[in-house]
Amino acid sequence: MTDATGHALTLAHITHRFGEFVAARDINLEIRPGELISLLGPSGCGKTTLLKIIAGFQRQSEGDVLVDGQSISHLPPNRRRIGIVFQNYALFPHMTVAENVGYGLAAAGKPKNEIAATVEEMLAVVQMTAFGGRLPRELSGGQQQRVALARCLAIRPRILLLDEPFSALDKNLRLDMQIEIKHLQRQSGITTVLVTHDQEEALSISDRIAVLSRGHLEQFDTPTEIYDRPRSLFVNTFVGTANLIPGVLETKTAHDASIRIGETVVVVPLPGPVAIGAPVLVSVRPEALRLSSSPGGLPVRIAAVLPIGPSLIYEALLADGTPVKVVQDRAGSDAALSDTAFLTIMAHRISGLFAKPSQS
Ligand SMILES: Nc1ncnc2c1ncn2[C@@H]1O[C@H](COP(=O)(O)OP(=O)(O)O)[C@@H](O)[C@H]1O
Ligand SMILES: [Mg+2]
Question: Which stretches in the chain have pLDDT values below 70?
């Protein structure tokens, strides 16, 4: 699949309206050759609309789609050399697996021997060589998924688009397929855009993640940056488990801010876009908190303890009733923890400081 490798994909100022409704608002993405990126966001945020715009099934209201710096916006879908696998696979039910995989090549009038060779190659890539003569209904969901992928790759697309490709699979199979896709993508080097509403999937599989909310691009960054340095409250709460601890910003410098939380003041190494005296939400992941039986930090009441494999997850309630999740190693955990305890925030591991929305 050497011709599939190394194509850059750019979305430049893409806006899309359905009547009055804005499904995508001034989206800019520069996807590097060979990258696997995810479009991540809740249902209805515009993910599928963007994929359709890239593939050419939907013409954007404004903006441009470019491959290797060349605009493809004027091209119909079949001339873009972009492969798309839809959520429901959409295999042709009356055709065999081999016929399905060869369909695009047959439609393009390729000679029979070339089609047969490509079908064989693609079935080998997705480990379905033995199934060429079967009908789709004789396959499991995961196998149908592989055939859909092989059919898409057979036309040797420059870009691969996958719309929620794992959502119909059960949990174990999903993990297998995620690993397989990642392998295949690495091997072939094909630039890939994956749509998902599953934050764990996006975090584990992507080189970079574009987080979308209501047609707006909130952040485009590596999984680690998205997790450790979410740029908005939306990204912070959508990705990972976030504890949002209310406080008041007391003082700040160019490098840090002092936040009063109850009787305690925490110095946070983030100035944040918040004014002095303003109510804030301090975001701390469960693994950036420590519970102890000895005084110091914030007094809490322990509401629940859940042993999960090697970890303990505590639900602790702050003095004002705010619930906070804390993860600790079972081995390193304080055995004396009972009803009341003390919570320390590891200030250097705080993931965000956000203005408190006036509603909450
Ligand atoms: N053909 C259409 N006509 C009108 N509204 C649409 C159409 N397609 C999608 N939408 C709306 O655009 C928004 C984004 O849809 P979509 O891109 O399918 O979201 P996602 O894939 O993130 O779930 C939704 O609110 C949806 O109702
Ligand atoms: Mg969708």
Answer: 1-4, 89, 333-336, 359-360
| Assigned token pair, 276 | 């002095």
Beta pairing class for 36-40 and 21-31: unpaired
Closest to 165 (Cα-Cα) out of 128, 143, 194: 194
Length reported for the chain: 360
The residues whose Cβ lies within 5 A of ligand 2, an ion, are 47-48
Which residue has a Cα nearest atom 6 of ligand 1?
18
The rounded Å distance from CA 333 to ligand 1 centre is 47
Do 207 and 266 belong to one domain?
no
Beta strands in 52-119 (DSSP E): 62-67, 70-71, 82-85
Strand 159-163 to 82-85 pairing: parallel
Q: Is 132 helix (H, G, I), strand (E, B) or coil?
A: coil
Q: Does residue 360 belong to any structural domain of this protein? A: no
Q: Does residue 53 fall inside a structural domain? A: yes
Q: How many domains does the chain fold into?
A: 2
Question: Within this chain, do residues 269 and 322 fall inside the same structural domain, yes or no?
Answer: yes
Predicted local distance difference test score (pLDDT) of residue 294: 87
Q: What angle do CA 192, 90, 24 make, to 5 degrees?
A: 50
**What is the span of the domain harbouring residue 303?**
241-355
pLDDT of residue 335: 65
| Within a domain: 311 | yes
Domain of residue 332, CATH code: 2.40.50.140
What was the pLDDT predicted at 299?
A: 93
Q: What is the largest CA-CA distance in the chain?
A: 78
> Do residues 345 and 321 share a domain?
yes
| Dihedral, 150, 151, 152, 155 alpha carbons, nearest 10 | 110
Are 213 and 251 part of one and the same domain? no
Nearest CA to ligand 1 atom 16: 46
